[in-house]
Amino acid sequence: MALEGQVRSVASSNSSAVDLVTAEIRRAVLTGTLAAGKQFSIRDLANQLGVSHIPIREALRRLESQGLILLPQARSASVAPLDLADLEAIYRLRYVVELPLAAASTGHRSPAEAEHLDELLEASRDLDPEVAWQGHYDFHEALVHPAANPWDDRILHTLWMAAERYTHLVFDPTQITGAERERRYETHRVLRDVAMADDPEAMAEALRMHLAANEDRIRAHIAPLEGS
After folding, report:
1. How far apart are CA 125 and CA 181, in angstroms?
2. pLDDT category, 189, cuts 50, 70, 90?
3. Sheet containing 69-70: which strands, arranged edge to edge?
4. Topology (CATH) of 17-79
5. Where in the chain is the domain with CATH 1.10.10.10?
């Protein structure tokens, strides 16, 4: 249950302790530093991060709501295992919520919003993996933004965060060739082009195909790892 070298201390930062702890544990889960199924003590985690157990517990509750962490006991937690049923449920809900919002957003972007979509598309192929990953996340958010209300945003952010640990396994931005970076850029450029046209059905279908292709690749990747 030791965590030495797996999470980094956040004690010296001036930002919210809960936000920092959440971000660091989430980073460790997404990168596999904290492996699927790994159990750890809350006390050890607090010591490693350099904070009290109070922000640790709040951060773990947040991550539990995102499907990343399990809290079966008061003093310990574990990383949620990889699960094909979990993956399929996440994508099933994405199809239900995300596709109609993207479709309804076509033809309703201001010039500034259209320019921002282009900026995010470029950011998604940045050589800095953190910039690229954030650009990709924000690009998908921008696809639905004109039609999404606050409840839509809450639901989609929960789904996107839950999906990230799976997509990160296959689309790891820290290990990517130039050719793969361009391939990912082109798949998203197609979405950008359809998003700028006033054709809701084409937008929904393009995004459905995009998500389905990603889901298939992730499923093939994690099937041998499920339960490990």
Report:
1. 6
2. very high
3. 39-41, 76-79, 69-70
4. Arc Repressor Mutant, subunit A (1.10.10)
5. 17-79
Radius of gyration of the chain (CA): 19
Residue 135, CA atoms < 13 Å, CB-side half-sphere: 23
Q: Contact 57/42 with Cβ under 8 angstroms?
A: yes
**For 133-156, b where at least 16 C-beta lie within 10 A, e where not — what string?**
bbbbbbbbebbbbbbbeeebeebb
Structure tokens at 52: 């009290």
| Confidence (pTM) | 0.78
CATH architecture, range 84-222: Up-down Bundle (1.20)
How is residue 89 written in tokens? 């449920």
Helices (H), 106-199: 111-123, 129-144, 150-170, 178-196
Tens-place pLDDT, residues 108-144: 999 999 999 999 999 999 988 889 889 999 999 999 9
